[in-house]
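anyone seen this seq b4? input:
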Amino acid sequence: MALGLAVAFIIAGLMTYVSGVLVASVTVRSSGILASANLGVYSDSAGTQSLGSVDWGTVAPGGSVSRTVYLKNLGTTQLTLSLSVSNWNPVSANGPVAVSWNRQGTTLTAGQVTAATLTLSVSSSASGFSSFSVDAVITGTG
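predicted toks r here
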């Protein structure tokens, strides 16, 4: 029972004796902001027009096309950018068609917007399909 009372007194910031020992404590309130990672992709440099897809148009074998997108760090912590691709359709397009960009390893501070150039390249030996789709996954790690 004495231990329970000591805890109550310590939390309240009082001074008391516990088992013959004088104990004092002070409560210090604290607050903070939980760091968050959140990344937006936009069609405009102000970062106001959200972008959900990129239309590459028609690309001939041996050709390439580039599109500029704008990335905005919507979180509270610095993010390091990376790009991966997934969900190739058809699967056979993975290899003859490649997606790359110029922002691998770039860091964005909270609120920062940066332009990124995505490039689609089609091998001159690409054959067996006339259309494709692929997900370009842009990741911000913080």
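Residues 59 and 65 are 7 Å apart (CA to CA). The two ends are 47 Å apart (CA to CA). kinda curious what u guys think
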